[in-house]
## 1
Amino acid sequence: MLHRITLLAIGLMLSVTMSSAQTHKVEGRVTDSEGSPVELATVLVKGTTISTYTDKDGLYTIMAAPKDHLIFSFISYEKATEKVGDRTVINVVLRETGEFMMRDIVVTGYGTQERRDLTGSVSSVKLKEDAGLKTVDQLLQGAAPGVYMTNSSGALGGANVLNIRGVSSIMGDNNPLYVIDGVPMYGTDRDANSVGTTGGSVAAASMGGTHTGGGSLNFNYDLKNSFEKNPLATLNPEDIESIEILKDAFATAIYGSRGAAGVVLITTKKGSRERTQINVGYTLSVDRPMGKPDLLNGEEYAMIYSHYLRNSNFPRLADTDWLDAVTRTAVSNSVTASISGGMGKSTYFLSTSYDLNQSYIINNDMDRFAARFNMSTEFDKRWTLGLNLSLNKLNNNALAASGIYSAALIKAPNLPIYNESGDYYYGYAPNTKGSNENYNPVAQAYINNESAEDTRVLANAYLEYKPLSWLSIRSEVGTDMYNSFSSVRKGELPENITGVPGNQAQETTNNRYKVVINNH
């Protein structure tokens, strides 16, 4: 009995060894008819569950036996079958099918069209991978003809100037209409996004009794500073699938007067039933101002003003480079993660991201959290239900960055940052002349707090019915809920500093809620 068991064990070991010996590594490259690599093509051992995918260069590696057949497949391409035999390298060329030939499809407001059938003025923007851009409108810089994008300032979260076909109005709004997954974004103009950073007002006196030309007298210590926010800063550029720009009559024919300055259609990413895909990304960026102006040092400043203003006092107390004091090398971090795929007749796309951006101005930064969920499901060949939902929150603590930079430009370099006690040095004394408004740029950066918190929810649900192959009826409901909270707090200043707001606070809250219904 023991002898039989031993022989049986030896036989099983030999069988496993022979089976392992028959399997060998097969590798190769999958390309299309033009020689370009086919990424994520499926390579399957026929009759088994053993499979793999090609990489970005079309390369694959798989274990197979000589008797096996490999099946190569990818959407819109004809399947190819190759017998392994004794080959270790199998290169395959996949040919496009005539029925599912890939076409250039363009989103045109209420539907899609093939590029070859499109006669209107529409530009499609090809998105750059791993561009590391912070806002959506930065993707359009130099990306399409007739579209001009310039930075309005170097401040984090600051508005950018975007013109399509130039300026269309002298006094009106020249911003294009942004439409995200069918939901128009309103309130992108300057007035709706300007935040004052002057602080509150200080009541000086109130007069009652006999009225002579008014009932009260108020002083307002106002520096007349403001910051224009970028309404697109809350959106995550990594979620965008495509951007179409409608110009001229093509924009107004669909959106009327709202599209007079052009329309930017933004379509976000969707899932695919072909495969499940997980992407995780991390971006590190470094920012530092270049070409800073060459300013006078403390000795040069004291000498020039002492000679220019006779009988005046401009001593050299210090040699301060104020620009160097208020700037830094900013380090920003961005983490993104997404998963997309499909189950049965449904597809989904889920993403989240967190950005922590530093300004090159000290103690100024901005962080953003964004989450998105897109899904669609087919009840049958005629009915489709879909949902697009995004949640975005932006905290911008860099509203005063431009004011701090400009204050450092004109601050007297013969004055120190700190006094002998280690406290901030205020005022312009012992200089004979100066400006209290630029009391201390470093102190401005640390004791004042000018910030804005923006929360935005964009949602769109649709139901589509296709009674015929060439006819579709679609009804959709979208909403844009936007909440903005700005807070300006001026720190405590010494009593000798006059004409500058201190010990003041101002808070402003704006809520916008819009519902859009489209039937087409």
Note: DSSP finds seven helices and 28 strands in the chain.
## 2
Amino acid sequence: MSQIIQAELVVLDENLGSTSHDVIRRLASLVVAAGRATEVDGLYGDALAREGQAATGLPGGIGIPHCRSKYVTEPTLAFARLTPGVDFGAPDGPADLVFLIAAPAGGDADHLTLLTALARSLVKPEFTAALRAAASPADVVTLVQEAVTPTEQPTAMASGRQLVAVTACPTGIAHTYMAADSLVAAGERAGVTVHVETQGSGASTPLSADTIAAAEAVIFATDVGVKDRGRFAGKPVVASGVKRAINEPDAMVADALAAAEDPNSPRVEADQHRTSAPRKDARTGDVSWAVRLRQILLTGVSYMIPFVAAGGLLIALGFLFGGYRINASATEIVTKNSLAQLPDGGLDQYLGAVLFSLGALAFGFLVPALAGYIAFAIADRPGIAPGFTVGVVATTVGAGFIGGIVGGLLAGFAALWISRLKIPAWGRGLMPVVVIPLGATLFAGGLMFLVLGRPLAAVTSGLESWLNGLSGSSAIVLGIVLGLMMAFDMGGPVNKAAYAFATAGLSVDNPASLKVMAAVMAAGMVPPLALALATAVRPKLFSTAERENGKAAWLLGASFITEGAIPFAAADPLRVIPSIMLGSALTGAVVMSGGVTLSAPHGGIFVFFAVGHIAVFVLALAAGAVVGALAVSIAKQLGRKAAPDRSPAAVAA
């Protein structure tokens, strides 16, 4: 295995730009120049997408931008010691030590272990001090290689007070392990033993039942769900995002010890799928059933979207090559022709038929995937098979995506209930492979066929008829509502609900569904475009970081990535969110009233060939962006002065 870092990947005491984006791009170019990644823009974009989830700056002058990327060919570290430092979002100021951690999309366990070892070393003051004192790139390479070289650690028997903790972040490369080591170190300072289970990408051993039983309390420092949360049932609990464990580990340990001594402190519930109404507590992460149901549905939607995107884009390409009548003849062309025996219309017609057929097959998994992963969110893996099956049943009886949602819930809860049955030890091996899928499929599928199919099919048919009958003011109102939803949380649950409504009903044979898809995509493109326009026209109203984000927002908006507006909304939500909602609502209304159609579920300007009435679509997009930019510019002038310049040069001055 090659070294994870080389001298040509190290930059010492240089100015790589005034913003974190500049530094990330320069480091990405080093990785590509070293032959460890294939495309600078691709790696840079993936790293920025991770930055959009949460800042990667850490206390002590450290920045750790990181990502998994299909453009990375082997796990790599690129390092810069900056002069001057650059703001990566840490609470104590700019970072002068920056590691770009680049992992392949499918990195193996050994390589990920090296990456996480580095992350863990960054919480050690002696390691960062050595990096700042390094005289040459070769010295840095030696320090890093020593840090990531596994060493055998003696196992000490725990004594005295004990805590257990779980750390996890979305990427599972850096913050997960840095939080773990921070909590362990904080425990040592407090005279407490902290045992941590890291639910990340690297190898990790689950906490044993004895260790959990001996602990006085549990700490959940996670940005994602805790796996097998029920193991900790009854333990006093303190919960937060993963970065608090890095920034305030001593406070979290103190809170956990206090919770252990308080008989009224929050406790971990026996099961996250409990049937009694849970209380809602910010420290425990307990949620109401409404929130839990939303999480379940969004899990199904998130797994469904790749089928929608791939299938929809292939269908749109089929139309591009074969014309809009290709749907009527695609199956016959594909089965009766080949490259050696082209149909009437030649190669374009044949390719169009192939692309359309591939897209239609992928799109056919929409409802089964929705149902299958709703069931998965409820019952874990035992729910997948019955969920997919009942999703196919819903499609067969004409219940559509509504049937998929209902069927997925039925299959998931049936699988969960069956999995909890007390059976003899000799029969447990049959449960996951026979009993659970058979019982849950029979129950949910039987209900769908015998009882629910026709009523749900009638509801689906009624919804389609209502959409087809929309015109005039009713269509405009729907466009406004969809526009408001797309801009409200920019990729969050409300945005996803509007997107799922559009994609789940998308059909080339249903003009109304194509109008809804057009409204949703156009409205979703507006927030980043509006803010990009505002930063270009009125730059003094925005900070240096926001102006840099504005440059990237042009491409993000054009690509239908609404999340490009998140950095602006996070910095100033009361002014930004209402402004972009106004622009998106206008766009949605114009698209619906203008009869614009769209047969592709994603792609932005790159699927303009799939847009009907393209002039109206572009007009609506421009109008929404202008109105949103104007609104946010006016809002930022009300009640405050122009945003301060937070560039390193300005801070130093």
Note: The longest helix spans residues 431-469.
## 3
Amino acid sequence: MEISALLTSAGINIGVCCVLFSLYSVLRKQPSNRNVYFGRKLAQMRTTRDDPHWFERFVPSPSWILKAWETSEDVILAIGGLDAVVLMRMLVFSIRIFSIAAIVCTAIVLPLNYYGQEMEHKLIPSESLEVFTTQNVKEGSRWLWAHCLALYIISCSACILLYFENKSIIRRRLAYIKGSAQDLSQFAVLVRGIPWSAEESYSTTLKNYFTKYYPSSYLSHQMVYHCGKMEKLMKSVREMYDVLYHDSIPSCHSCGLSGGGRPNLFNILVDEPEVSEKGKMDLQDLRDNRGKECPAAFVFFKTRYAAACAARALQSSNPMLWVTHQAPEPRDIYWPNLAIPYRQFWLRRTATLLATAAFLVFFIAPVALVQSLANLNTLQLTFPFLRGLLNKKYVSQLVTGYLPSVILVLFFYTVPPLMILFSTIEGSISRSGRKRGACCKVLFFTIWNVFFVNIASGTVLNKLSVFSQPKDIPLQLAAGAVPAAVKFFMTYVLTSGWTSLACEVVQLYPLLCNFIYKVILRKDHGPFDGEYTFPYHSEVPRILLFGLLGLSFSILAPLILPLLLVYFCLAYLVYRNQIINVYITEYDSGGKYWPIVQTSTIFSLVLAQIIAMGVFVLKRSTVCFGFTIPLAICTLLFNEYCRRRFFPVYGNIAAEVLIDLDQQDEQSGRMEAIYQRLQTAYSQFEWLTYGRSRRKSQYLSDDEDTLRHTQELKTESEFSQEIIVDESVGKSWPTNHNAEVESKSSR
């Protein structure tokens, strides 16, 4: 592929990005789109009036970029939780390491690649991309020392930056744990595999067990139930609750909640004789008859330390009985999976593993198709009737430079939802754990299909000897990665990176749904009124994949580094804007995405070093090959040190921290209040009834408390005033938004 084809792809993507970013700066100012672009803020406050004649709403402006840039990390922590901070630190790390790599490789490696052969160079747009890669370096060239030196600089810089990022995030996590003194999950343990008894219920069996073995620390428990038909009633109640939560007072009248319009389902339920006469007694009967008990329960302890000891201990000589885990936060629980018998989990995990592997194999076909599109000669042989059309210069540039990456991106839109489904079937008990498991699956799937299969379909599959001689894999990667794959990966960065960020900020699918609901269906609110959380399971793998591409091709094809650097800078601004304005943080894993980042980065470094070894062998530079081996060994040793030094903090909470928190609560007299909250926090009836709305209301109260104590936000009134004068949302934010939140909660 020539540079002109790459420039064609870059021009198309830059044009699309400019149009979408300009469109976003206009659409975000329209009152009808506030629920799409300001879902998080609208969850805290409601607009009272619109100003359709405000001219500035139709003028593109970069104010959202400045606002995203100026927002401090403490505010990001208060708004998006520690997971959002980890995402930002991931991007900051990428910007730093690829800035170093771009400077070193552009100044040293790129000129040596370009002048590596004695040849007459053409004009830059007419040059082939291979001229700028290591393929253009002569065998036995003494300038390969520069490539080895650049690899050392990049690897050492990455390890140093990773070490300091690990220390920073660990400090954040410890502060997060110590600051979450009201986190009720630290007192709760999830118990599964309760043995069945014909004489007594699961609840009685569990109570007898824990009063016998934990007599001084056991407090109480909450059983998990099969809902059955009760869940249908709960669903109806939840739908009515959502109507009350979303609609303002005028819309409630229009919906028939106070007469007129459609039937008032809420009043019909309240007017039932049994409910109106018995009141709270019926509610208690409803809770007592929720369905059959499951062999799972939440057990509450009097101290955090006692709960941690019980969660980590092996309770029975049979590991399949009395299985204990630290309970998730109440708003983080994925209730449908709690009823799954513990003995089924290994079957479910095996089934999802096989399904994921089958999908990996199935996806090789579209990837091979995309790779064939990137090769013009192969495309002409496969479709001879298109030969005349493909011989045209602009058509060939469009087909080889833009079309393959677009097709692959469209195929990959099906991957994250499917991996979420696999993680759900696998049996994750928490919503954050389900999304984190999907993130790992998407990352593995992406690296395998985008990186390895693309290289293999281009070169390695044509050389079957690689399967009989595994020792030649580095050589095949080195030989195939540069001439064939780099052409596709550079256009893939433009399409899947730059354009996807523009689509993310515009929110095309929520925008379309909002238009259908409000303009065509004439409803007061759409399906995306601040109801969705940040898609870590799709965005984190994308960032890590681009990190893999950058590290792997840094010395092989340095032209990819500026493209990646632009992507990471754009991602930093776009994701900050989305976290601040759009996504609601209903749950937080406490920064547990960082071990995934650490492991993926080390894998990328080692892979880059292995490919570099293959290049040095192909170019007959045994000295550079020998010097690269210690670098790979030191990188693996550094990773092992980080795993032992930092990773345990993500799995368990230190005993000294738990004991200190227990002592502080006992001295301040907060323990009794915590015990009372435990009785209702894990109530399955209330969570299944109110569902997302209760999680949102709990998030809102926590978010307001956190923002009030954040140093960056001086007072709540100043925060309100800042929202009012923000030109991006016009002049329709109410000043007394707290009263509206309280009124909605009371309704």
Note: The radius of gyration is 29 Å.
## 4
Amino acid sequence: MWFSNCRQLILINFYSNLKRSQVKYWSSLPLKDSFGRKHDYLRISLTEKCNLRCLYCMPEDGVDLSPKSSLLQRDEINRLARLFVNSLGVKKIKLTGGEPLVRSDCLSIVNDLAELKSIGLSTIGITTNGLVLGRSIKKLVDSGLDSVNISLDTLRPEKFELITRRKGFNLVIKSIEQCLSAGLPKIVKINCVIMRGLNDDEIISFVELTQDQQLEVRFIEYMPFDGNKWSQGKMLPAHEIMKTIKGKYGDEINPIAKDNPSDTATLFTINGFKGRFGFIGSMTQNFCSTCNRLRIAADGNLKVCLFGAEEVSLRDPLRSGWSDDQIINLIESTLSRKRERHAGAINISKSPNRPMILIANRMFSSFSLSSTSSSTINQTHNDGKEPIDQQSSDDNQLSHINQHGSAEMVDISGKHETRRVAQAMGTIYIGPKVIKLIVNNQLTKGDVLSTARIAGILAAKSTANLIPLCHLIQLTKVTIDFEIIDNEMIQIDCIVSTISRTGVEMEALTGVSIAALTIYDMCKSANKSMVIKEIKLIKKTGGKSDYQIPTTTTTTTPTINK
């Protein structure tokens, strides 16, 4: 953690001190992460709203929508898109949602993006549920739209209502027909999420759609997001779907070479068929090594990985007067921390992430380039009236860097002593076998939880010796408790108190971390695949502001005529 923060500070310091001409030259280079992956594909969510309620996308009890003022406005989308295309080499932009076509200015946004084709943008696409697409597809194509992805998970009207919790099957089929005759430069794509026991009996019917029509049907593995009740048993792997198709068509199936190494779908065609089908095996055949995608959520948060909870706000810097070069620096610095691959289906399902409809935790950070006065995020938007999110206030800026961008310890001599309390929690997944050994005190190294408690308390008291910029604080109390959950994991709870001029968040987090590592050390002879995760600050009180972690609320195949 400390090393990662220092690396971030070094990057920010380096980029912010480049001359403008140097920044311009550097920004014209391909947008790459630390693994050399070139990122030239940007997905922009226009809205969190949707006129359907699909089972795998929308949590059953809905989601808390952001206020309209928190969403990116048309001019902000245009500015960001222009930056990504003109300065960062993005070639393809796809508009998503929610349902992008419920946004009234969607057509105008497509017009704006079309102007970027003169400076390097090659493709404008849209992913839609197709419900209202038919009435606007011709205008969209005339405005510059190149490609359409339509989400459709069943070819049976009654099952459509079950999956989407809404009517509208015939409208979607009609939209597909109109897309086929609208003159789109690229093939119309159908995105189909296959779920075991729900629509896996329709695989062949979907393939048959490609027999007489220029369609690309893409079978997508069921992916875990907050609130969509994902389970490994419901997910049908791509190889099982292919087995079903081979059972009917066998040697008539032919692979199609990828146009681009970054293409996510593995495509095939069948002898005599006009269209093609393929698979997006995000869970079992991940394409992380060639990932070229970045995502901007409707609220302006940049996500460098679909399955990562980490986000950085681009909206707040836009509304605080940041220059183009500063925003470019922020994007580059964020991308530099992109991981080599996602954690895998099981681990993803146990980690917090936005519900798919919003890609309700809004886990993001905003930080400034301290060498310029305009970089500080103000307390108001451009109009000076509406407060910005609390998470992007001045209290959340990097406080451990000086005016020259160098790391230093904060001077707390001018602060008042108050009673301060912080609570942190974390989890270690160790499995039922080891849980039983711990409960029965049968591990050779002794009493695991008692030892971990002592280690965590000692670590909390020694935080200033472990974290370079932390102050030496006299603690008044440290408590560490453990709870066994689902007979497979231990949740660690650390509460630290002090009467001091500064808070004890780091002491609480350190206590949890070392307690978890101690459990790992004492149990590793029985299980070396334990996982420590979700170490986080739960709340803090005292000082200038209090904090508490946010909580979430929460048949016959139809004919498509060209």
Note: The chain has two domains: 29-358, 418-548.
